[in-house]
Amino acid sequence: MKKTKSISRAKWGYICILPFFVTYFIFSFLPLVDTIRYSFYEYYRSGIRTIGPNFVGFDNYISVMGPDFFTYLKNTFILWIIGFVPQIVIALLLASWFVDARLKIRGEQFFKVVIYLPNLIMASAFAMLFFTLFSTSGPVNSILTNLGLVNGPIDFMGTPTGTRLLVALMNFLMWFGNTTIMLMAAIMGISQDVFEAASIDGCNPRQTFFHITLPLIRPILTYTLITSLIGGLQMFDVPQILTNGQGNPNRTSYTLIMWLNNLLRAPDYGRAGALSVYLFVVSGILCIFVYKMVNRDDEKKPSRRLKRN
To answer: What is the spatial distance between Cα 299 and Cα 155, in angstroms, rounded to a whole number?
Structure first.
């Protein structure tokens, strides 16, 4: 009898994923390695003369790690926190509301589309829209003045609080719809039998949300926190356009990526590379911290079981 040749499915699987790894290697891994390499070199332009690349060791890291780094890091965190906290709270409430079959919401699909639409608008368009709306001669000031709520136009972008709140509001509007859809998918993955059993046992909506819904959607919640944290550290387009790249007033809205962009425009490739490495390290440490904090209960359970045994 003739032996039939078996088809190696594993081989074709590797062939199918090969384009991704080739693309990642060329456009992500090699630039990452090159960035780390240039961070140890003096490489910048002075007028029309290019200096370097000259190996300087850790001088770029020492130069970058100054008061400006911590000031811009603080600005970045403030802008992220005041935008993300309302985003995750409202997204959780909306997700629970839309998924709850007992409410029988009318026009549910319409509301889902509406809350997701801002995510499709480019950040540059959003920033220009808010710049026009909240300028001293914009529609918002005109409405407030005509209603007699204020005596004169408010300079929203003339104070650190006003500018930060505008940046946070834009980030909230752009991303809360996407977060809501993700959390809705997570809640819909929970079996309805669990909610029915909780209702039979006498759980009220608050107890069901905090003791059943939140623990069971923890993986998606962790993913949302980590991706939002990374996106917050990379915040650039909204404050860049709203403040014309200056981070005014007094650079209170100036982020780390805005600083990195100015170093690359100078260009100062050595210090830009060092700042990129710092951002990579800070992002990694914070992501590990968030992951451990969200999943610390799961890590304690095996040890408790071992002690009981």
So the answer is: 50
What domains can be seen in the chain, in order of their start residue? 67-308 (1.10.3720.10)
pTM: 0.83
Run of H or E residues at 44 = strand 41-46
Of 279, 288, 268, nearest to 52 by C-alpha is 268
CA distance 280 to 75: 18
Q: Where would I find the H helices in the chain?
A: 9-24, 30-38, 59-64, 67-99, 108-116, 123-133, 139-146, 160-188, 192-200, 205-208, 214-216, 218-233, 237-242, 256-265, 269-294, 296-308
pLDDT at 23 over 90: yes
- In the chain the first and final C-alpha atoms are separated, in Å, by 58
Residues 150-187 pLDDT 10s: 888 888 888 899 899 999 998 888 888 889 888 988 88
The Cα 107–Cα 111 span in angstroms is 6
Token digits for 297? 């209960």
The string of DSSP codes covering 229-249 is HHHHHT--HHHHHHTTTS--S
| Nearest residue to 179 via CA among 228, 214, 229, 216 | 228
Q: Which two tokens stand for residue 96?
A: 């629970």
Range with top average pLDDT, 29-38, 106-115, 119-128, 296-305: 29-38
User: Which tokens go with 54?
Assistant: 């000259």
Number of CB atoms found within 10 A of residue 62's CB: 11
